[in-house]
Amino acid sequence: MAFQEKSLTCSDCGKTFPFTVEEQEFFASKGYTNEPKRCPVCLRTEGSERYGIGAAAAGGMSRGGPRQMFPAVCAQCGKETQVPFQPRGDKPVYCRDCYAKSKA
Asked: How many domains does the chain have?
């Protein structure tokens, strides 16, 4: 079967994007019968939101929502801080600065 490059419309942003011959051959080799619905940019954005990829770069967003933070007091300097886990009290909790110093 001979493939030809197609222009598809992204279901998220509405922009057109190419569905190349190589991509069509790849889809066929995997047994995929549907064409892609999202452009590469929206696909990456959706993937990062769904799987938490690059959450730190996204301003603390993880899996499509804000990360839950918990109040704590740093065991080293005594400063009030917030951490992304529920402190249990059986291990010391450090603020960002003290944690970074301990890892250096």
From this structure: 2
